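Is this the right way to post structure tokens for a design question? Let me know if I should format differently. Anyway, here goes:
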């Protein structure tokens, strides 16, 4: 660890900024800068990874080979080298296969996408009814990742999906919907747009999936979700996945689900596999100097760097490029294709640094992130937890560093 990141947190003298009420969002789910920021004490950014000999690994009761999937689906699972299910997969797949409503409570990076996709694909292999599955996700990136996983797991099974998200050509999406795919994967905003235009009917939906439900509520999509759910048949299977359980989440589950099975595999609020610390800086110049020093170290192999605003993120990425660091950025001013190219460059190690706003903090499957650096502090502690969840995934140990102001 960089010696600059080993300093202890400042313990006093910082005046808390006022906290806003649960915030309204402008279109697209972004937080307005004028809405303020909750003060987070620096001590909350420090936590040593607790993984060690005392950790008891999860012992699944199944192997993937044990699940009653079709031979082709088993073949696709084996091709992806899936052998032993994660906790959420092990416990959620059987009740989903039985047609039950399921509430899945799981941290980011636990494999929940496969937990709902595999039973859905198995059901569709027997009954290929068009427009029978609707999967909602909070962000374009997460929706796209779900679509990619669906296509991989259903390869060669003559099952088709359509991705409906903002930032992409709506005419093309309408054309794809007219081909009557079995699965529609979308964000709430674009899904509502297409329903209002009369080009998306949900009358045939048999399975409704709400993925990252807490994040969708946090982004202000509660009314859209209610409208979309009410547009589907009452007799449907509903799968509800969330990292947290709040009173609003509980209200939604009572409203949308019938006699659900609850599967909870949540761990602590912050990843036990993430070593967390702070970096003190007294000026913008010192902050950038320390960042460049850290990024020059060999162990900073694959770094996800968070900034507050889309303009700041782009400036920071450009500055890193000028300093000789291969960097890409994703933020709200990027088109969907630009964001996809940036993510691909980062995943393929063509760029070692990805600078992002909180649009990337949740649900992105980016393997082998060695460090998360909060160049700008998150607006809430919940956002912090989502940010650092990008590292320390699977059996790896990650590191998270947060810049704080020296007093």
């Amino acid at each position: 660890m960089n010696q600059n990141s080993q300093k202890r947190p400042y313990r006093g003298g910082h005046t808390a900024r006022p906290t806003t009420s649960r915030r309204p969002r402008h279109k697209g789910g972004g937080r307005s800068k004028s809405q303020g920021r909750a003060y987070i004490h620096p001590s909350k950014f420090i936590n040593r990874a607790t993984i060690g000999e005392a950790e008891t690994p999860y012992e699944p009761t199944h192997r993937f080979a044990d699940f009653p999937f079709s031979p082709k689906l088993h073949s696709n699972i084996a091709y992806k080298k899936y052998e032993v299910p994660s906790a959420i997969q092990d416990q959620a797949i059987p009740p989903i296969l039985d047609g039950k409503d399921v509430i899945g409570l799981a941290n980011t990076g636990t494999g929940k996408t496969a937990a709902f996709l595999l039973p859905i694909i198995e059901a569709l292999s027997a009954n290929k009814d068009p427009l029978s599955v609707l999967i909602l996700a909070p962000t374009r990136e997460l929706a796209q990742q779900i679509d990619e996983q669906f296509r991989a797991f259903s390869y060669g099974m003559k099952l088709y999906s359509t991705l409906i998200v903002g930032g992409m050509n709506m005419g093309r999406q309408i054309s794809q919907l007219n081909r009557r795919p079995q699965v529609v994967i979308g964000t709430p905003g674009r899904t509502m747009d297409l329903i209002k235009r009369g080009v998306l009917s949900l009358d045939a939906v048999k399975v409704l999936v709400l993925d990252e439900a807490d994040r969708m509520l946090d982004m202000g999509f509660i009314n859209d979700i209610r409208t979309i759910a009410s547009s589907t048949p009452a007799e449907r299977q509903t799968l509800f996945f969330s990292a947290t359980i709040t009173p609003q989440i509980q209200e939604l589950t009572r409203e949308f689900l019938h006699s659900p099975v609850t599967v909870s595999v949540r761990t602590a609020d912050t990843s036990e596999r993430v070593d967390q610390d702070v970096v003190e800086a007294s000026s913008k110049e010192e902050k950038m100097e320390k960042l460049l020093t850290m990024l020059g170290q060999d162990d900073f192999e694959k770094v996800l760097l968070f900034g507050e605003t889309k303009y700041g993120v782009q400036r920071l990425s450009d500055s890193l490029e000028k300093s000789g660091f291969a960097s890409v950025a994703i933020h709200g001013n990027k088109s969907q294709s630009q964001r996809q190219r940036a993510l691909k460059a980062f995943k393929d190690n063509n760029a070692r640094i990805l600078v992002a706003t909180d649009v990337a903090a949740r649900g992105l499957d980016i393997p082998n992130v060695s460090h998360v650096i909060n160049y700008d502090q998150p607006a809430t502690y919940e956002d912090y937890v989502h940010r650092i969840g990008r590292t320390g995934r699977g059996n790896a140990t990650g590191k998270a560093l947060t810049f704080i102001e020296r007093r």
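Format looks fine. Someone answered above. Worth noting: Confidence is low (pLDDT under 50) at residues 1-35. DSSP finds 13 helices and 13 strands in the chain.
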